[in-house]
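A note on notation is needed here, since sequence and fold are reported together in a single record. The reader may check this reading against the record printed directly beneath this paragraph.
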Amino acid sequence: MTTAATSWIIFQRSMRYTLRKPAWVIFGLMQPLLYLALFGPLLSRIGQAPGFEGGNTWRVFVPGLLVQQGVFSAVFVGFGIISEVRSGALDRMRISSAGELGLLLGRMLRDAVVLTLQAGLLTLGALVAGLRAPVGGVLAAFALVTVVGLAMSGLAYGLALLVKNEEAYGQLLNTLMLPTMLLSGVLLPLALAPGWLAGLAEANPISHIVTAERALFAGEFSGSDTLVGVAVAAGLAALATWFAARAIRSGS
């Protein structure tokens, strides 16, 4: 069976499973919507601070929330594949005619579809709250967030296949995700950070993606911030896919 055929079959299987339990999708959307509702109104008081570009607070805040959604909704998919490893379902798939790369890509495609839906709903809520941004920039930002989601999904599957234990995987996520998100500037621009903190953030690839998202929401398609963020996201996606494919191929 070809990789494309396997990917499509696994995508359909994963989507059916997701649609049978839509509560997980809804719960995944609750956190950014709460940020939008509870933290967003505070932005009007800091609209003239560095990094907010003359008061366009929603165009700074919402792109960060989209990246946060892309990262957090994707990394939790690792729990699902640990369950499949424990039940033996993944092993049965691996010894069939299904291609191992297809077993991974089908799941990642499902994750990307769910993330795009969540991002769309989040942006609609932000539009009601007062967001104004060019349509082309928003669509390009959606595409970038999807690439980020693919990268984090691949990383999640690879790490989950290595640890094969929900408790260990949860602890690993907490250890990795907290500093990653704090040093990414998802809620507030890093222009507000002291020099030493901004320097640490430069080493965080997610911070460059957040900057690119904000540039796209401002309609900047060819600036250096946008190009660097797109390159970083594409590189992460390629590296994470390779890492996860190696993990699933080795049967870890």
